[in-house]
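Sorry to interrupt, but I need a hand with the structure work. Please put the record directly below this note.
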Amino acid sequence: MHLYPLIGIPQIQAGDDLSAFIHQGLVESGLDLRDGDVLVVAQKIISKAEDRMVPLNSVKPSPRAQDLAAQVHKDPRLVELILQESQTVLRTRPGVIIVEHRLGYVHANAGIDQSNIEGDDHALLLPLDPDDSARRLSAALGARTGHQPPVIINDSAGRAWRNGIIGFAIGLCGFEPVVSLVGSKDLNGRVMRVTEIAVADELAAAASHVMGQGAEGFPVVLIRGAQIKRGDYGMRALLRDAAQDLFR
């Protein structure tokens, strides 16, 4: 498997046509789309193109946001946005609010980010519907290139039992994100009973390592040679039911 960061992707503005920039990035990188390729796209440029930037001076904190902000030492306006983007607040400590995002996954601060955006007085929200964003981008690239690739939109998150952050899929299209090995046999002939592989998250993490988390400037990675199963799926296949989640 090979991972290729696309060069030449500029700073994205609201309303930009990402398919045009990605196509140009492929050309400048000396690449073309082939059957079996997967594109991993950083959430940040999707959110910017979809105008998910919010000026903090437009946010009026609720009493709940003000109380919670005092507990976690955060800007009440930012906390208000976190609450608006969340279904449930699960855990808090100074500096972080762990929530069940409105899209269903558990995420720190509802995925709201202020890094690598212009100005300290804005916050960037996640896309409204990352699966739909992935589908539309895949279709637009198909119209441009003749190849409609599977697309992963990735973000970074911590994990309940490990230090550090890792890339994971918040939206996807075009392939099966979780592959079950239940019923197959291991090297010793033992039948596996519970093993499922989160292929989408594995690919998202690999691409995240290539993208970097700082000033590297590689928000799109082409993955070639991944063993995927094509199909019409979204990211909800990756979500564990709350009743089976021992960390909630």
In short: Helices lie at 18-28, 43-49, 63-72, 76-84, 130-145, 199-211. The longest helix spans residues 130-145.
